Amino acid sequence: MVKIKVKKLHPDAKLPLYAKPGDAGMDIFSYEDVIIYPGKRHSVSTGVSIALPIGYVSLIWDKSGIALNGLTKMAGVIDSEYRGEYKILLLNVSDKPYEIKKGQKVAQILIQEIVSPEIEEVEELDMDTSRGTGGFGSTGLH
Question: Which residues of 128-140 are buried (b: 16+ CB within 10 A; e: fewer)?
């Protein structure tokens, strides 16, 4: 079992937590009240910092409930060496202001082990695959 260390930067900040056993992502909470207006973005304070072991990464993902209402995250990779406050960059893509209250779930964090492959420059790539160079829509719409 991997352990992460979480520091509250304010006594009343909420620690990230898994809502249910087996959840992939743990919820992270706002440490501020803020209104994000349509087309605007805001870096939401969480009031916590996290220490990950080397070889792991925090991946920030949307919460479906606030995404349904038009908020989406704009950045999502926090490396293990970072020790500052976790801030969640949110963008309001709806046509209505969105109010975030202190203590509200604003995103979810997946902690994942990373692989750092060696980079090898080559003259050609193996193109003999079922997809080849097929891009967007190349596997069909259904």
Answer: eeeeeeeeeeeee
Structural domains of the chain ordered from first start: 5-18+25-113 (2.70.40.10)
SS3 67: helix
Cβ(94)–Cβ(44) below 8 Å: no
Write the pLDDT tens digit of every residue in 12-31.
Answer: 999 999 999 999 999 999 99
- DSSP state letter for 83: -
In this predicted structure, what is the pLDDT of residue 142?
61
Exposed / middle / buried, residue 77 (Cβ in 10 Å: 0-12, 13-18, 19+) = exposed
**Residue 99 DSSP SS3:** strand
